[in-house]
What we know:
The strands form two sheets. Strands 1-7-2-5 form a four-stranded antiparallel sheet, with no helix packed on it. It is an all-beta fold. The protein has strands at 8-11, 33-38, 40-46, 51-56, 60-62, 66-70, 77-83. The protein is built from no helices and seven strands.
Amino acid sequence: MTAGNYTGAKAIVPxxxxxxxxxxxxxxxxxxxxxxxxxxxxxVVFQDGTVVNFTCVAGEVLPVRARRxxxxxxxxxxxxALYYA
Length: 85
């Protein structure tokens, strides 16, 4: 997979309970990256439930396969889930 060749995108609404909306066929609830429009912290939840806080600048593409972005600790804005499939 080549960075930047995404085929789909969905706006992210941070939530401590709801995973990302389904997209595509395989691993539908996992995004391939997150675009961060407004600088801040992104609390990423990975497939195994591990939570990691990333500090991002505006316009950054965070190359993570995430299942959710938690509302708790997330201060970044205008986030978009990016998908290859």
